[in-house]
Amino acid sequence: MNRLRLALVFHDHQPIGNFDGVFEGAYQDSYLPLLDVLRDYPDLPIVLHTSGSLLEWIVANHPEYVDLVRGFVDRGQMEILGGPFYEPILACIPRRDRIGQMVLYSDYLERHFGARVRGMWVPERVWEQSFAADIADAGIEYTLLDDFHFRNSGMHPDQMHGYYLTEEEGRLLKIFPGSEKLRYTIPWQDPEETIKYLKGLHEKFPNAAVVCGDDGEKFGTWPGSKAHVFEKGWLRRFLDALRANRDWLNVCTTADIIDNTPPLGSVYLPDASYREMCEWALPPERQLEYAHLTRTHENDADWPQLKQFMRGGFWRNFRVKYSEANEMYCRMLEVSRRLEEFQLTAAAELHPETLAKARVELYRAQCNCSYWHGAFGGLYLPHLRNAVYHHLIAADNLLEQIAGRSGHWVQVVADDFNLDARKEVRLAGDRLVAYLSPSRGGHLFELDIRSTKHNALATLNRRPESYHDRIRAFAENRELGGKVASIQGEVIFKQPGLEKKLIYDNWPRKSLVDHFYSADTELSDVQRCEGDIGDFVLGVYETVLRRTAQRVEVQMTRQGQAGPHQIQVSKTVSLDVEHPGELDIVYQLEKLPVGETLHFGVEFNFAGMAAGAADRYYYDSRGRQIGQLEAVQDLPPSDRLGLVDEWLGEDLSLELSEPARFWTLPVETISQSEGGFEAVHQSSCVIPHWRVTAGADGRWSVRISLSVDTSAAQARKLREAAVVG
Prior knowledge:
Elements: E1 4-12, H1 20-38, E2 46-50, H2 52-61, H3 63-74, E3 78-80, H4 95-113, E4 119-121, H5 131-137, E5 142-146, H6 147-152, E6 164-168, E7 171-178, H7 180-185, H8 191-204, E8 209-215, H9 225-231, H10 234-244, E9 249-252, H11 254-260, H12 275-280, H13 284-297, H14 303-307, H15 318-321, H16 323-343, H17 346-350, H18 352-365, H19 382-402, E10 410-415, E11 424-429, E12 432-437, E13 443-449, E14 454-455, H20 468-477, E15 513-517, H21 523-527, E16 542-547, E17 551-562, E18 565-576, E19 579-590, E20 597-607, E21 616-619, E22 625-628, E23 633-645, E24 650-673, E25 676-693, E26 700-709, H22 711-724
Helix pairs in contact: 2-3, 16-18, 16-19, 18-19
């Protein structure tokens, strides 16, 4: 019988580090209700992919769901897709980790659901042809991408109603094109629109096969979708329509299509993702040009022919667009390389379980959502970036354990840690790990606190985004506030006055950022990134490393301009076994104009310590609370300022040998997410600043002690362990 085959693929995912309430909300609003409805339609099979980060949470919190899914599998109503365990972008991790994650997840799925995994979901459908060999080597038979990938290869839309063979180095893989048309009709349009489209395909292409693969969160979790899909009955009407047309429509699994139809041919696909992702990967100004071209020509008679040749950007360039994504990527590569090196040592043979734990921590840190940004928060969400570093630091700690390090120790290494063809410096010990970039302002760009597994410098810069124009337009005419049918088009403002916060940073929001301000610079100028008259912020510093068994240090020196004056700045950062939780920082200013006053400041940014909560606050030299971590303050001279996050159990303080005035201000980005446009607190900026007047020798110096106290976190761990025990 000539029937069109339709495979419905649901992709359920929550990223590592997302809030427990978000997991629970999506479970109650999307994942469980979908299966509850499908139980009433045993003749309509589906294909389900659940990311490993989500499935681990489900196993721990809702094991009954695992039993429910296994029931669907046992009666042949569901096919389970695999993939890399923790949903990494395959282009963002080494080949060894791609294969390792896929094999690990296939084994995990087979243990829980009792069925062999044949197909996989490619995270965010980010594709490069070399992945075909990796997927085949992991034992996967087929996958699905978007028809956009196939159009980019030059294929005509009429050729996409089945599956194709591809290969890399002789390893074969089958690939389905997923229908973009169905991604937009399901569930946003009336079921009859989908039936009408499918009927047209059936009449035109005998024995066609069509795949629709998209996010399960569209069915209940996305704004407005729960009422639409479940409460107003869209899903049941859709399933009823599928049943009503079974004389020509066969709802089946992707494995059924492969087992019962031959491939349509062979294809090699270009580097791509889904259409929107390719647009988001473009620089902001090019995104605007792309959107303008689309709006200008979408009603042209030849637009359907032209648009198939339009492509956006390349996913890997997110690491160019966002330096913070590159920082996470490079740190991940460092841990992955170390783990691979340990794999071959005798120490690894003695500690196989510890090595396996380190590998899982690495894999968790590779979860994709923190490494890019589009219509969803992703990179802009601090808790997701913090989760990446949490697992990287956990893996690093385990590798140090395998290496047999104990007691207090220190180490200094110079290498190209961020892949910029310049060397950075890594100061490491048993409590802290600090990364510095002498070639770019001598910044302290990462500070790992081993005990709490927290990078206190996981900051994010304020930068232009293409959608910022929509915020400005809304503020100007108040006419762009209505909603449209799909989540990508919604214009919702979660806070008022966002347009006033569209300020962009001119340098990385890291620490040890050296400023020389004009004499009249005030806090309001600093908030707007104005007032700096020096060339030290991004200047190159010459570097000397010193090491003993007890102490390691890096000295960075630069001769540069401070207004009309040519001066020299040296800063020495040290880590000592006697003070393992402290960075000792000494600034030496030389060749200063005698008798003249310069305004000098050192910028610190502390991230991962949330704002807007009473238990996250600044304190002064007398231990008094002086404002929450989002406070804008111009504080009187003091020799100490601290930041406390009671929830994390961290106390970070700056102690100065020369009292300084302190400016504090929040760094807030304006980004878009599922809920709309919003301001997000990224870091607390602290700037001690001095009016420096040099004596006859033209010199001035200050010692800054950056101390990290996690005793509160350690005490809490002991209490929790006692309760468990």
